[in-house]
Amino acid sequence: MFRGRGGRVSEDVSTTRDELVNAAAHVFARDGYARATVDRVCDLAGVTKGALYGHFTSKAELAVAVVEQDAVELERARERLQWRHADPLQVLVDLGHLVHGGDRVAGRLVYRAPVCDEVAGELVAWWTRTARDLLLSASYRGQLHAGVDLDRAARGVVTSLVGTQLMAQATGSGAEERVAAVWRDWLPRVAPAETVRRLRLTAPRPDRR
């Protein structure tokens, strides 16, 4: 819950920074990057401009911080999914839905705000490494076709999912079904039919993420 300007301003530096990042995410989601202003972020966080500039030099830095915070949350989500699922391919499917299937503000910033280009590259690199690690685990469990090139497979599916997300953003709908379609098309290329049949390819329920 965000406090208005009339609320008590936190003196704790880390808390203030977190509040600013959370407020910025809300403003970017509501107004878009181009129309968002630092004044609106300050109003929502309940801090002065001076407090904001003590942490960030510009709106661009705020956008990067939102994307970086999202990357931290995605890593935590991966850990939760791996704890919940024994099957690394199901973790891969669910994480793909989480990264590309929802309406995450960071996902929009990554592809629409040029200031996020560098961190976007880092996020794609993290996702590609994660996909490869999960495919390696699946290979150890005998879930993949023999001879699958793990590096090529990881790059290929991440590229397909990124394209799917861009298409969903351009059309304004259908992200979850598009992601499920990627899994239906791609998984049989790397895994036997009986393995794919055991997987849920649709998006997990919100309480299972």
Automatic annotation (TrEMBL):
Any Pfam family hit: TetR_N
The name under which this protein is listed is: TetR family transcriptional regulator
PANTHER family linked to this entry:
HTH-TYPE TRANSCRIPTIONAL REGULATOR YJDC (PTHR47506:SF1), TRANSCRIPTIONAL REGULATORY PROTEIN (PTHR47506)
Q: Which UniProt keywords apply?
A: DNA-binding, Transcription, Transcription regulation
The reply on keyword DNA-binding is yes
The Swiss-Prot or TrEMBL record marks DNA binding at 37-56
Q: Which residues form the HTH tetR-type domain?
A: 14-74
A single GO molecular function term of this UniProt record: DNA binding
**Superkingdom in the source lineage:** Bacteria
Give the species this sequence originates from.
Saccharothrix syringae
